[in-house]
Design goal:
single chain; 167 residues; mainly alpha; two-stranded antiparallel sheet; 5 helices; 2 strands; elongated; disordered C terminus
Length: 167
């Protein structure tokens, strides 16, 4: 069990000489490390650019669909507001005081329709975010209520293919 060991301060591992006192090997190690870090950084940036380029058409398509839905929603709310104004006119014949409240509600619907029509999707998202930060419980309750209303509207809206087959 005898082993020979030289303590000259250097040893050979896998064919590479390592001398702790050598400044050139330390410089080579740090330059390799810098080079590897640079390559990793370039690779990460390239991957990020490619992912961004791949996501751009998807984001544009989603934005386009959101704008179409926003326009449809604004139109639908405007139509509901007109119907509520008409109902208020009929109510005014019997109960004028109640008609004022119904007209006020219809005006709120008109304002909502106008805001929806005149604002971009990004503006609406920012408004919703601001409101959610200011009043989280009201926002959550409103989101649940809006979900129920939207489901009701979607179920009641006619679908072209199904409607023509049922008549």
């Amino acid at each position: 069990m005898s082993s020979q060991h030289e303590s000259s301060g250097s040893y050979s591992a896998e064919g590479a000489d390592y001398t702790p006192d050598s400044e050139t090997s330390a410089d080579n190690g740090s330059s390799r490390s810098s080079r590897v870090k640079g390559q990793i950084s370039e690779f990460a940036q390239s991957a990020k650019n490619q992912a961004s380029a791949a996501m751009q058409p998807i984001a544009n398509n989603a934005r386009s669909m959101a704008e179409e839905q926003k326009a449809r929603g604004a139109e639908r709310i405007g139509n509901i507001a007109q119907a509520v104004h008409g109902a208020a006119d009929e109510i005014a014949k019997e109960v004028p005081l109640a008609a004022n409240y119904v007209h006020a509600a219809a005006d709120k619907l008109d304002n909502a329709s106008r805001t929806l029509r005149d604002s971009s999707v990004d503006d609406l998202m920012q408004m919703a975010t601001d409101f959610a930060e200011e009043r989280p419980f009201v926002f959550l309750g409103g989101a649940v209520a809006a979900g129920f209303v939207l489901m009701r509207l979607l179920r009641s809206s006619p679908v072209g293919d199904e409607e023509s087959g049922e008549e």
